[in-house]
Amino acid sequence: MILLSVFKSAWFHRTLSKGVGKRYKSADFEAATCFHDLRVPSCVKQVLNIGCGAGRNFRPYNFLYKLWGVDVVPYHRIKWVAPFSNLNYEQLSVEQLTEILHNDDIDLSKTLIISDCVLMHESETDQLRFYFEARKCGCRNFIFREPPPYKHPHRCFKLPLDEFTQPHYPNDTMTVYAHLEY
Asked: pTM for the complete prediction?
């Protein structure tokens, strides 16, 4: 009788959790839909991912572009989701990256900057400062995936919305703010 109840509970657990592992895995290992769907301008040669984590949002760009990852996690602690070609990783915060852009002569004219729920943690001042420094360095192509203001009223995208298109994707609670110059 005990054995029968163990099998029933195992079956019940598998039934309840069916597909949960797959969603969890895709959330951790697959890039957000917008990074697959939005066409990258032909002038882009490098992708800068702010808050790159384990690199899941690099997947659509691997082998196509030089990859530049920036995050606060030390390199040796990252368990990369794939072996990325042409990856340059730097342990930096958004503020530190902004300072580098401000002080160094960096050409971002052939760079696409992407971010997935990172700017929401920065103040409006820091978001604007980063954005204007990137623009000053020549960057014209951005894709930011951030929560809409109603979801996190104090943690949201604060850049000038008139400069970005805002596509929405089904089954995605985030808003995609994109500025791409073709």
From this structure: 0.83
